[in-house]
């Protein structure tokens, strides 16, 4: 029986290994992590991450050929293929601070693999890593190998949170990069054989190591670039009276462009987009390509501008101050159908409103109060370190309350900000919300999920990103 071990039981490792176990019943899969609480959650009825369809997959396989364990060394020792899916946070100090990836966790994983291995192994990069990481890992393994042979493969994930299980069942492509040597080709084939048990062969792409590593960064940079492009257009739409939904629909019907990732919003978030672009910027700078680096920096600048523009619109619309005003925040996760808050635009929007002394009442169906408080008081990039290395959040913060109902969040509020496109926000009883708010009552729709005209009929003053402004908002322009 082939044995697979995955180091790291997070958003990538957990779902990916669960699907491999389901689709390959002849393979034994172990997911290992040093976090006892995380592994305990994977072994319970309350999984540590929310992902539609994940519960069913885990329950079908757990205890049969899918195991979650803190005994990292035992399972690495037994494995034929070791996936490494550990954090690669952005460095906060030293060379490349604010841009370069911190490979501390990757390096320690590689050294541990070398220490405990007594048989040849295939080591698979599953984390998003900078180009040439495989080369560094290869050096660590070969210099500590004690005669054992290791082959390094790059197998980047292209999952979208909220649809990860669907993406894993039916991927656009599986990308495997390896050394162009007989041993490398053999390792690539071994991993290809795993995926081929459910993925059509024409969708399994093979490249050299560096192409696979760079393809992941490039894919995320291109997707983020599309969001920043439509968000830049949304600002122009507001200034001219155009409707960004109509513009993006017209643009998306061009088959060369396509309709995906053209929804204007308060900004992109998630664990990868900003981090990968910063990584790309750093690689470009290190390779003497400042103009290319500057190009990709602009994608992040537009994203930051969109968030600050939203905050400025809220403040300027409400008589240029939100001090001591209650603002309901509907949605804190970076997108619907996930509880993930990493780099969510809600953090910067909330911090901006708190900077103007607003009182926030936050509701999200999948994010805990502890996570929200932690995110709002954490330094940039701290989120990507293991939870025990993150700073603790203050337990008492009078300006932020977290509630478990949208109506409670909006009760006696001056304004409502919709920051995540949860389906339930489309179907709320906005008449009830209006009746229980202070007047004038404002709705600031950062995801374009509500029918602005219907809300205006109720009596709301509505701001929708990239949509024609009503008279009230035209009289109070936002200065970004």
Automatic annotation (TrEMBL):
Q: Which UniProt keywords apply?
A: NAD, Oxidoreductase
One example of a Gene Ontology biological process annotation: glycosaminoglycan biosynthetic process
Q: What is its EC number?
A: 1.1.1.22
Which residues carry out catalysis?
272
Give the GO cellular component terms, alphabetically. Answer: nucleus
Superkingdom field: Eukaryota
Q: Which residues bind NAD(+)?
A: 8-13, 33, 38, 86-90, 127-128, 161, 272-275, 342
Q: Which SUPFAM superfamilies match?
A: 6-phosphogluconate dehydrogenase C-terminal domain-like, NAD(P)-binding Rossmann-fold domains, UDP-glucose/GDP-mannose dehydrogenase C-terminal domain
Q: Where is the signal peptide?
A: none
Annotated Gene3D superfamilies: Cytochrome c1, transmembrane anchor, C-terminal, NAD(P)-binding Rossmann-like Domain
Q: Which reaction does it catalyse?
A: UDP-alpha-D-glucose + 2 NAD(+) + H2O = UDP-alpha-D-glucuronate + 2 NADH + 3 H(+)
- Write out the pathway annotation from the protein's UniProt entry: Nucleotide-sugar biosynthesis; UDP-alpha-D-glucuronate biosynthesis; UDP-alpha-D-glucuronate from UDP-alpha-D-glucose: step 1/1
Start and end residues of each UDP-glucose/GDP-mannose dehydrogenase C-terminal domain: 328-452
InterPro entries documented for this protein: 6-PGluconate_DH-like_C_sf, NAD(P)-bd_dom_sf, UDP-Glc/GDP-Man, UDP-Glc/GDP-Man_DH_C, UDP-Glc/GDP-Man_DH_C_sf, UDP-Glc/GDP-Man_DH_dimer, UDP-Glc/GDP-Man_DH_N, UDPglc_DH_euk
Question: Which GO molecular function annotation, any one, does this entry have?
Answer: UDP-glucose 6-dehydrogenase activity
Task: Provide the family line.
Answer: Belongs to the UDP-glucose/GDP-mannose dehydrogenase family.
| PANTHER family in the cross-refs | UDP-GLUCOSE 6-DEHYDROGENASE 2, UDP-GLUCOSE DEHYDROGENASE/UDP-MANNAC DEHYDROGENASE
Put simply, this protein is called: UDP-glucose 6-dehydrogenase
* Organism name: Crotalaria pallida
